[in-house]
Amino acid sequence: MIDLEPAWLGLILLGVFTFYAAKRGLRSTTGIHPYPPGPPMRPLIGNIMEVGSRYAWLKLTGYKEQYGDLVYFQGLGKSVLVVNSLKAILDLLEKRANNYSDRPVLIFGNDLIGMNRTFLFADYGEEWRAQRKLAHAALGPSAVKDYISMQENVSIELSRELIKAPQDFYSLIRLAAGRTVITVTYGVRSASAEQEFIILAEEINRVCQKAAIPGAYLCDFVPWLKYAPSWVPFQRVATYGRRLLDDVLDKPFKYVQKEMDTGKAVPSLVQHLLSDPPEAVADFEEKVKRAAATIFACPQIYSVVLAFILAMAQYPEAQRSAQAEIDRVVGTDRPPRMEDMPDLPYVNAVIKEAMRWRPTLPLGVPHRSTEDDVYGGFFIPKSTVILANVWAVAFQPDEKYEPQAFLPERFLDPAHPTIDPAIWAFGFGRRICPGRYLAENSLFMFISTLLWAFDISPPASGEIKVASKEYILRYDTALAPICLMLIPTNT
Q: Which positions make up the signal peptide (predicted)?
């Protein structure tokens, strides 16, 4: 008789069950509603591993034509539902938010790194609600008005630095975007501390973006693998990620506390909350620390500004139209200000198109169902991971405006309306990003000031070679080979 380890035997039986479930037509346990359609199943592993493949959003978008708005994956005891249309995304994540506001159970991300300590990945419950309340109070539409002057100054300073070193536009934009968020969140003034904290944010983003994708690490599907020895490669990554997260939570927070103790702290989100704490909030400092770290680590501003610069070099007619509008409304004697935003519709359309053209998070941040559900005649089991495929939304076929082209005019055509990317770029339902108003203001200031100050052109060779799938802001993607020219105009 063959002597099999119980865990391996269980895995084999689970795979056999998964395979035969697929052969029987993917009927739910209710016997009434089928599971949503999906790719063919394979013995032992089902089709679940496709979700974690490289450039998964492209493959998953391709499945939309074959399977529709809902594409279902299962195997190894897990299930993932990819949602390919905005209507279905909003129906589930907003209209049924009570059932779809939780985050996935991530063995690698939560058990090994501790990502659920942050507001972004925290389980849906009282702890998360307390953190959300703090974040929304400090970053609501009225509160962000206090940061406008700082955002205008950072945008002007970026232009000055680009005049001195236009070849360093990647690093300068990265620092400027990080400076905005870190100043608002922690009031950091020290250049050395600022640089250290920005590097921390980038590193934790790189680790967590991969860890948040179901299937990126096998231990998410085979939980007992989390007990693997420390020398196993994914365990080394987890140890590194856990140290990074500890630093992201603690170091900027302690910086503010030290500045407050010496009377040097400048106004910031953390300084404001610590100076005037609400009554009867248990573990208040820990809640502030976790909410602040989530806002601090957001990559949205940097990603969209890079997409904008690349687009201006490739689509000079859009750049000229935006610059003409700025010259007409603002003039050449001063840079744009936040108060100019309502009078610059084409510039606003350029910003929207930059968000659409290169989505920062093409599959969003995963949600999870807390109860069984039925949608569109299909059964969605409890604890199914929901991936909002915003890439499919951004590049849905359009008979008038080519999806792959950069065409701001699509947002200025009332006869042929296009979905505003702000609807999907900052998350959905109760999990929507609390920093979206701050991000939208920063994007306007950075992009309008760059249009006012520079002509953005291809390099002398005239060639820009970037495949669309390679220009997502993922920290393992090499962007350095792209060369552009930034030529000062109004200085």
A: none
